[in-house]
Amino acid sequence: MNISNDVPLTIMRATEGSSAPASGAASTPAQTVLQLNGISKSFGENHVLRDVSLTVHKGETVCLLGPSGCGKSTLLRCVNWLEIPDAGTVHVSGRRMGVREGSSIKMNDAELARSRARIGMVFQHFALWPHLTVLQNVMEAPLHVLGRPRDEARTEAARLLERVGLAAKMDAYPSRLSGGQKQRVGIARALAMKPDILLFDEPTSALDPMLVGEVLNVMRSLAQEGATMVIVTHEMEFARQVASRVVFMDAGQVIESAPPEQFFGAPQTPRAQQFLARFRSPHQAADGWSASSGHA
After folding, report:
1. Which end of the chain has the smaller Cβ count within 10 Å, N or C?
2. Distance between CA atoms of 236 and 227, rounded to whole angstroms?
3. What are residue 216's phi and psi, to 5 degrees?
């Protein structure tokens, strides 16, 4: 797999001013960034999510794995209320999503936009505005949702594009970019909102295999720098290397949740074992996961 030379090896955290505790410092309770309780969602007779609960702490990289159609992407869309759950609650940094606190009244569009500003979403199919330049795509939400001054939004957008290796493409339109470049613009756009959490919905699935590496490099750097992320992916080796926790879903439910070394080395449930067996050669099935493993 070719890795683009214009992708920086390290990307600074989206949230300024935070740092890892000094060696020997007293540990503090993990801060909960995302709390899902009892999320259920159906489309007609199709029960896509069944009573899903999940907690994500600050600095975690949680990779959602599972067969196609198991509800992973729908779960992400429920987090930012692109899909409205039939049951359950979503809290981001302690604040209720989609419903006014202390009531059953749904948020209006303005309230929902403010709540979504805490969540960065990177979609499978880029979702860039074709009539805006790369720089304008990254500036748009900070300008119109957060109300930041234009000069400030422009400076920040330029800085983020440099971080993802696209400083030379600021004035280009999306139609002039490769798929990998478009996805990196999408990441920069998500970071521009300084979100509490980043959601990635299969960000490499629409890319030519030769372009996957440049996007994964950016995401890997974000994980190393401590960004809080939930990633739906079929890139097994990436998940093994980057995740702080793997959550395995099947048939709309969370079946298993474990550190990557445990999940890939000794999955506990028969369904997870069957899923991983698809990506192992016969000798890997006996010896555990290998760095040569591919992707779904």
Report:
1. N
2. 20
3. -60, -35
pTM: 0.83
With a CB cutoff of 8 Å and minimum separation 6, the contacts of 151 are: none
User: What are the phi and psi torsion angles at 240 (to 5°)?
Assistant: -60, -40
Calpha distance 269→228 (Å, rounded): 27
Q: Note the helical H segments in the chain.
A: 72-79, 109-116, 134-144, 150-163, 179-191, 212-224, 236-242, 260-265, 270-277, 282-287
Tokens read off for 59: 């600095």
Residue type, 41: K
Mean of the pLDDT values across residues 7-11?
Answer: 38
> Which whole-number Å values give the CA distances from 270 to 53, 257, 288, in the listed order?
21, 14, 15
Model pLDDT for residues 88-146, shown as the tens digit of each residue: 999 999 999 999 988 889 999 989 988 999 999 998 888 899 999 999 999 999 998 88
174: helix, strand or coil: helix
Q: Sketch out the chain's domains with CATH numbers.
A: 54-118+198-291 (3.40.50.300), 128-194 (no CATH)
Distance CA 67, CA 217 (A): 24
pLDDT surpasses 90 at 48: yes
* Torsion angle, alpha carbons of 64, 16, 142, 35, to 10: 40
pLDDT of residue 137: 97
Helix, strand, or coil here: 123?
coil
DSSP, collapsed to helix, strand or coil, labels residue 244 as coil
Q: Are the C-beta atoms of residues 253 and 47 closer than 8 Å to each other?
A: no
Beta strand pairing call for 46-57 and 32-43? antiparallel
